[in-house]
User: Fold these one by one.
Assistant:
Number 1:
Amino acid sequence: MSMVPEAYFDCLHIASELDAPLAGVTRIELQRIAFLSCLLSIYIAKPVSDWGYKFANTGSGIPFSSDLGNAVEFMLSSGSLKDEHGRLRITDKGRLMIQQLCGLHTIAPRITCVSAAAASLLALPSSVVTQGLEQEPTTAASQIRDGATILLDEPHLHILHQHFSVLAQVIPPGNTDLLSPSVLWLTYMAHEKTEQAELIADTSQGGSVVQPAEHAQSQLPPLPEGAS
């Protein structure tokens, strides 16, 4: 098992951020928060290749990183995390490892993204976070394919960049506050997910089908008034 420091840090930091308010984090929540963290990194104009590990859609609509999954299992076996009734909780050993990992030059730039993503789970209903991420363009496009698909890849990655370009007009990217754009984008995309479901339902009455990623691209602008 190869060590990916970024994945190790992310799983520990997410568990640490949510330990007090939510008594830890589930494995699925961890994967979603890490994926949202990567999205926020893209929002502040970091190349997706800089994130350190990739995500795939395994067919269930849940972004999954095997590197992150491996990191969780290692942290559990080493005592840096503990599993309490299906929730991952940070230990004192894990907190010490966070401090050690923060000394790596690749870690500091991602802390704000991971913290804001974890805070988004506290600021929004879990259903909004789930639906918003399912409507992310590369994820939505992967739903119509068979088998696992690498996310945040072309040809649909450019649609995500278009989303964030519009979002940046409302909330200019800044490293000091990523919670606001995260909450706004997730809320808007969850609304799009609901509209998409209604659109599909309408096809039973003779309407035409619009593919999820295509719908998301065409419907994003403008963002809601007063969003800022």
Note: The radius of gyration is 18 Å.
Number 2:
Amino acid sequence: MRYPSLVQFTLSTSMVALVCACAAQAPIAPAAATTPAPPAGAPMIDPPHAASKKAPEQGEAKPSADESELLALLPSSKIGLAEGIALAERAGGTAISAKFELENGKLSLSVYTAKAGINADAEHNILAELSGDPTLPVWQTEEEVFADIKHITRASYHLTLVQRSKMGLAAVIAKAQAMHAGQVYAVEPAIHERSPIFHVAIATSGGGHVNIDIESGA
């Protein structure tokens, strides 16, 4: 067995020392910062500087252009919504929704009725609309018995919701006016947050709306 000479051992030791010295003097670059990837299915979130600022909400929403035009014409009506409902029911049936609306730029009063009454379901009822110009001295109405899918569906929806209420539309209007002063120009049954309500629109300076629970009347 041959052993390394003293010269070989000395050279080997010197080379090891030189390598260690160079490694100690070389700067070590810091690791680049990384953002952990979001778990699968997680929503993407924009960085803070890219987030848009949402304008703060201030009061009730402004009425649309059509609604503003409607509100401007309301004072020209010779009858109120509750009176129109009473006249429509006098002609036969139960009112299930009513509203002032624009027809070709002119004011019109429309009342949906269930001619077989509130106790008959939509399949065994006659769903119709009475409408006419409320600005005339006498409200002259035309009756349309619904035959198209769109109006039958809407009227059936109104009837089904109204059947769950112990209040008629006239009582709903009176309650809404006690809660919010102004002229009521629409009352329609609807679903709000999975609960049946009467949506009542009231003409005020900024536009007003009242929701009344169909079942409790609150």
Note: DSSP finds five helices and seven strands in the chain.
Number 3:
Amino acid sequence: MRKIDVFTHISPPGYSEGVDKIAGGLKDIGKRTRGVPMLHDLDVRFRVMENFPEYQQVLSLPTPPIELFTTPEQAVDLAKIANDSMAELVEKHPDHFVGFAAALPMNAPDAALKEAHRAVSELNAKGSAMVGQRVRVSGKVVANSENWQPKEMTLGFAINDENGAQLPVVFYGPRPDHFQRAAEAIVEGQLLADGSFKANTLLLKCPSRYEEEPQQDIFVKAVR
């Protein structure tokens, strides 16, 4: 019978070096983490795993969380390194690893949402710590991304950040007037397991078509 352990930590290649460079002298749990060979040494991990037939793991990072010892910029870079590395391990060793939980830079909320979407949609992560949490994120509305389904009262669109990373958004509610003119959207809701974002509220920033008119803000709430 196959046994899948969904709570197994690893400090994958590249991530370990990044942590050492940023916070190599981290005390307490940092010191303890550095002293566990299975977190860093794949050979040791595989030897232990092979004692248990049909045993597989879902990988995730160990404590301390990234945001506790990094700046927001460092956290974004380190999360990407960790996710790329864990995805590579899953691809190379499918008999040992069935997936991974995405690492996120929780001290950079907007970037965390983008990285969660990238990890799930591009790297096939099984989820992340942010899934289900209520958060707010903003971005520019991607041109021609609107998908309005009036019978279901479902509005789909995408927003992106300054680097062009896109986050698909689904909103179950009325289509706001002048949506086609929206330049920016501020959405509040939950990140879903597939990397998309379910918006409970939607605030659109619509620039005026005339210089003498002020920018128009449109706020709507979801119906479900």
Note: Residues 187 and 202 are 5 Å apart (CA to CA).
